[in-house]
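It would be a great kindness if you could assist me with a short task in structural biology. The matter concerns a single protein, recorded as an amino acid sequence and a row of backbone structure tokens. Kindly check, if you would, that the fold set down in the tokens agrees with what the sequence suggests. Thank you for your consideration; the sequence and its tokens are set out here:
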Amino acid sequence: MKNKTIHRYTTIVILLLSFSGCQVFNLPTKTENKNTPENYNNTSLSNSQNTAQINWKEYFTDPYLIELIDTALKNNQELNIILQEIEIAKNEVRAKKGEYLPFLDLGGSAGLDKVGSYTRNGAVEENLEVKHGVNFPEPVPDFMFGTYATWELDIWNKLRNSKKSAVSSYLATTEGKNFLITNIVAEIAEAYYELMALDNLLEIVKNNIEIQKNVLEILKQQKEAARVSQLAVNRFEAQLLNTENLQFDILQKTVETENRINLLVGRYPQSIKRLSTNFKKLKLDTIHVGLPSQLLENRPDIRQAELQLVAAKLDIKAAKANFYPSFKLKAGIGFQAFSPEFLLNPESILYSLTGDIIAPLINRNAIKAVYYNSNAKQIQAVYNYERTILNAYLDVVNQLSKIDNYDKSFNIKSLEVELLVNSISISNNLFNSARADYTEVLLTQREALESNVELIEIKLKQMNAKVNIYRALGGGWK
């Protein structure tokens, strides 16, 4: 009868705990939209071929550039920092995995206990014989050693979902590393092409300085012959000084660009080897953009956002499981005796086995807050994922437009530069034969210099578009 009453009350307690745990608020979640357009606003370019699949050592063929990127991928401090973050995330997975496995501890103790003689325990011990003729010792030593195990039964998959969330976060960190590699490759390539452009600009400026010096000498001779005024000499000399001043701005930019590369490579300032002579003749290889849906696989930032979304969904499940009862088993076995000589005696064996069931009943605000936050973070992760896809698509479209427009612009500007360079010789000849004013010579040289500078800038934009379309498509990390 007594056992039936105990079972009845135990059943009631379990039902109450289960009922309280099942009162979970179901908050609305958001489903992500993975749909992408069928092409990049140009059906003829949309096919299965994708430049992102090309290894960066094949995409960038300059040996000095390849050497720089290769060194950066070994020494870059930011990359090495994120590698440690990956190790941290890996250890988080290990910790979460251990939470749903049994915990087994080994322990031992030794102590001394003296109870009062006029107490129940004292009276019993005083009259107790360990064996015939041997009284119970006073004070009583206590020696014990054994093993203890605890295990939370993961009935609601709370611990397993937490572990899966940690795995997704770890994989997201790995994709973050890949995205950083893509950016490092692109940033070094951009800076390298900028150095080449600066070298060509410096060469153009120096050539113009020589031309202007020759014209200035002729003007000084003509001034002495009273053919031109001092005004002409002053204006040409001012133009020469202005052109000479351009050198120092270019040299400063060169130093800063070199050091930007050195920082990415992870070393102190030093000169950057480069091949700058044929910069204007660099050609863009055919770009295969593939299908927009391939961005979901090729772009590390999209893969990272997707894995973060997976982790956020699992966190909701784990947070919801906190409302349900938790079940724990505890067990222990060992030896305990007042003397080491009896410690390994079979009669000194002790053991225990208990089961606990615990569920939140009232004041569940902390649990609710964790659940609400997990739900909000899941919605946040959906928006971040969709934004990342949209940004990637627009990035590709923008870079394709740049490649097309800068190619046309470079061809037209090349014709302009060719005409103005020829015009310098024509204006000089006309001036020497007194058939042109000195201002025509001055304007022609200035226009030729400006056009040459613009041509180099357009070529740099072309090369940057080559770098950025590769990055936009998700290339550089494989």
